[in-house]
TrEMBL record:
Coiled coil: none annotated. It comes from Ooceraea biroi (Clonal raider ant). One of its GO terms (molecular function) is catalytic activity. Pfam families: Exo_endo_phos_2 (PF14529). This is Endonuclease/exonuclease/phosphatase domain-containing protein. It comes from the Eukaryota. Residues 1-120 form the Endonuclease/exonuclease/phosphatase domain.
């Protein structure tokens, strides 16, 4: 199975946006039945829950129809929330043969991502099997029943700070693989025998405590919005959440400096 991550900056012009789609077509062609595309295309279209349709959205919709790609997003929960408003610009795309394997798709609207974008979560059905012949490489597997999302997110946040985008493509691929293994090792137990290795230990109690307070503040603010509390109350809770979010950023920055 292949997971493709795509980001097209809103600062890119329309010609560059089209070039990204063309390049993506070439890459996913040979693996169409085994690929999941997770992308922030910064494109708006009514089909996937947008309030309007822009030029990028029309082009992307035509590209999806041409390749017979399907949008796996479910519902109308915004994937991007900014002070100016919310939108659905983060898409999960699969081909029809894979669509039945894509399960439990949802937006984690009450998880703190330290970004305007929300985490998207989905699972791949147990009936999906990776095709391969003899000698197919056995990849590590983890038991995600006790998956620790904060630890996983913290490793990715820390490692991304060290990422060097000047290295060769092969080196980047190895770095991504190693980083994902390290993050999963810290967040969950491995299934089967675990190789002897040293996990990262910079994730500290201080970050855990501040993050819990931040998530609690976020949920209080969201709860007040759902219950349609007064503007004064929701504004106060929003301000409290922003302060908690700032403290979390500072604590993570401090942990990075001391690691």
């Amino acid at each position: 199975m292949y997971v493709v991550s795509v980001y097209v900056s809103p600062n890119r012009d329309f010609a560059e946006f089209c070039a990204v789609l063309n390049s993506l077509s070439v890459f996913i062609g040979p693996v169409r039945d085994r690929v999941v595309i997770c992308g922030d295309f910064n494109a708006k279209f009514l089909t996937w829950g947008g309030s309007t349709t822009d030029r990028r959205g029309s082009e992307l919709e035509g590209w999806l129809a041409q390749l017979d790609l399907r949008v796996g997003n479910i519902g109308a929960v915004p994937t991007c929330v900014k002070p100016q408003g919310s939108s659905i610009v983060d898409l999960t795309l699969v081909f029809p043969a894979f669509l039945t394997h894509l399960q439990d798709w949802r937006v984690l609207s009450e998880e703190e991502s330290l970004s305007d974008h929300r985490y998207l979560r989905f699972s791949i059905g147990a009936d999906f099997r990776v095709l391969g012949g003899r000698g197919y490489r056995r990849y590590p597997a983890w038991n995600f029943k006790s998956f620790d999302l904060p630890s996983f997110s913290a490793v990715l946040d820390f490692k991304s700070y060290l990422f060097d985008d000047t290295r060769a493509v092969d080196s980047m691929v190895r770095w991504v693989n190693d980083t994902m293994v390290e993050a999963c090792d810290l967040a969950a137990r491995r299934s089967g025998p675990r190789p002897s290795c040293t996990s990262a230990h910079w994730w500290c109690d201080e970050v855990v405590t501040v993050r819990r307070a931040c998530i609690a503040a976020l949920r209080k603010w969201k709860r007040a919005l759902r219950r349609r509390r007064s503007v004064e109350v929701t504004n106060e809770l929003q301000a409290h959440y922003r302060l908690a979010r700032g403290r979390l950023r500072d604590e993570i920055r401090k942990a990075k400096a001391q690691s």
